[in-house]
Amino acid sequence: MKTTHCVPVFLQVHTRRIQKKKKKEKTKKKKKKRRRYRELLIDLSILGLLKRTPPKAPRRNGHEEEEEEEEEGEEHHGDLF
Length: 81
Description:
Layout: H1 9-47, H2 62-80
């Protein structure tokens, strides 16, 4: 049986808070994983086991990453032609 009545405002606020809290925890976990991975790569690069350079701090804007990829792509295109 579906209810068609509106949810009281205090419950809406409550569920929004819960959702916000869950999202915050999820982003915390993601940040923790990224930090751990970055530290691992840095440690490996110090030991000389890793050939590529460790990633920089994560960028907040996707535009900067795209620009960097385009620059790398331009170099490859220059080699091909």
